[in-house]
Amino acid sequence: MDRAILGGDDLWADRVATTSAQRGSAWQRSGRSARILTIAAVVSCACIAWIWANDAPAVTGTASALGVLTAAALVDAQDRRLPNMLVGLGALPVGVAAAVAAAAGSTGVAIGAGVGAALVSGPLLAAHLVSPTGMGFGDVKAGAVLGGAVGLVSTPSAVLALLLALAGSGLWAVVRRRRTIALGPGMVAGALVALFVARIVGVEAN
């Protein structure tokens, strides 16, 4: 039994080390513009937490999840894959924030997270089933986390986040003259813009 447990610990440690190496490698291989955009996204996550703090306490989970997905998006931009460990890590603060809100009686927050996850991941899953090579399952999983994160604050904003992500990614592909691009960066950008817009136009928090 001890060997089995030790083997599991070693496997977990190897996965953590591999993910860390991938993230570091992606940062080292990214250009100046990609690094600036990554830093800007992290700063934007902090701003989102600040501007929504009074009306949506669960926004801490939103900002934390989007911060982790920003790291995943950087890897996606370089390697065309969203690391499962980072996506799973991003889901953690969403789940915690939803559970805390539900325990405090704010069931609307938890429901909003679930609905937001479905609204974003549903269309992506459909696209994956139609064309697995065109839409990776990693995008579907990241979409669920991102939709849940945005849904903690504003469920309608999750839909806007997806639309902005698809439109922005499509425009970027046209400008760069590429047939395929990583969707991760577009999803993070779409979520951040959607939350900023929702705050500006006065959308009520869940």
Helix content: over 70%
User: Please, how many domains?
Assistant: 1
Largest sheet: none
Shape: globular
Unreliable runs, pLDDT <50, ≥5 residues?
Answer: 1-8
Q: What can you see in these coordinates?
A:
With about 210 residues, this protein is mostly helical. It has one domain. The protein has helices at about 1-30, 30-50, 60-80, 85-105, 105-130, 135-150, 155-175, 185-200. The longest helix has 28 residues, at about 1-30. It is globular and about 45 Å long.
Output the keywords:
206 residues, mainly alpha, globular, disordered N terminus
Gist of the model:
The protein is mainly α. The protein has helices at 2-29, 32-52, 59-79, 84-103, 107-130, 137-151, 155-176, 184-201. The termini are far apart.
List the helices and strands and how they pair.
Blueprint: H1 2-29, H2 32-52, H3 59-79, H4 84-103, H5 107-130, H6 137-151, H7 155-176, H8 184-201
Helix pairs in contact: 1-3, 2-3, 2-8, 3-4, 3-6, 3-8, 4-5, 4-6, 5-6, 5-7, 6-7, 6-8, 7-8
